[in-house]
Amino acid sequence: MSAREGGDVSLEEARTDRHILVDVRALLPELRPSEHRIAELFLATPEAAATWPIGEVAARCGTSTTSVVRFFRRLGYEHYRDWQMDVLREVTRESLSAAALPDASGDINRTDTPADIVAKISLAETLSIADTAVALEVTALGRAIAAVARAERIDIFGMGASSIVGLDLQQKLTRIGRTALTWSDSHSAWTAAATLHPAAVALAVSHSGTTADTIAFLDLARRSGATTIALTNHAGAPLSQYADITLTTAARETVFRSGALGSRIAQLMVIDCLFIGVAQTNYDQSLAALRDTYAAVQHHVRIDR
Question: Which residues are 181's β-sheet partners?
Answer without folding.
Answer: 155
